[in-house]
Amino acid sequence: MKKLGAIVIFSLLFMPLLGPIMAEASTYDVIVVRGDILIDYTVAQAYSQKEKIPILLTDPRTLSGFSKRELMGFYDEGARKVLIIGGRTDAISEEIELEIANIGYEVTRIWDWDRAGTAARVAIDLWKSSRESVIINGSIEESYLIASKFAMKRGIPILITNENSLPASTQDALEKINARKVYVVGPMISDNVVKTLSSKGITVERLGKDINISDIVDLKEEGLNLQIDILSLLGGLIIGALSLLLIFRFKKDNSVPVFVLTEDERKLVQALKNGEDRQEKLPEATNFSRPKVTRLVMDLESKGIIFREKKGKTYKIKLDKPIKDTR
């Protein structure tokens, strides 16, 4: 009876928090985008981070040997559904789609006649509903990085505008996902675009002018907070107190206590020679499969423990915070 009582108490405390997370299962296992079109990659990143799905970059016409090996590795690990973002003529060819299907994957393609339309389809098909969105001028590459980081932090889609007019596809996406707030990122987005958004009852904030990225709280956290009742709040206070103790204990050296890492995460971190290595070498160094390494890297990156730097067709992984063994 004591065990049953403990289970009931745990459920009352934490199931309200876990419910929204468990309810959102990813539809796809791998995302494929054209490697030399940064806007497609930027749009895909927000969903990739939200659902913890790896992104595979490819040439427009044929799969490279590296990409094919990665896809076969993912397939061996149980991946079955691939999402291609981009059209057949100006992004990723039909031949690549057939190559992926021949491996055994079920392939879905999201695309439209232009980049704004493709981004709109991504928002509609993958988010379905999002009360916030990021909007950038698709021709200003300098906006991509900050927009991507901001969208990933908020868990929201990226949409595209022209300098002086809001494309019909973007307007349609905002309406269909029921967006009530838009964050405008980067230069060369006129007041006319802002007025169009405002006329639809959408609140507009310019990133860097009205709001700083460091001031933003994750949208997921806000959603969870809305669902906290008295019992879950009590559990949160207990966890918060323990977290504060850990913060005060380790804040001096900014290191990460080793016990917060899973066993697999520790093994991957230990495999980084002198704190860095190429991602393609980590499967052999850890005896993990390529898909598993990709997932671990994404998890550690989201925690701020490592960061990735693009190097050709792979990534260079660097340890961002020292790991402290407190045993």
Automatic annotation (TrEMBL):
Q: Does Membrane count among this protein's keywords?
A: yes
Name the source's superkingdom.
Archaea
Q: Which InterPro entries match?
A: Bact_Sporulation_Assoc, Cell_wall-bd_2, DUF7343, WH-like_DNA-bd_sf, WH_DNA-bd_sf
Where's the DUF7343 domain?
A: 262-319
Q: Where are the transmembrane segments?
A: 230-248
Give the keywords, sorted: Membrane, Transmembrane, Transmembrane helix
**Name of the protein in question:** Putative cell wall binding repeat 2
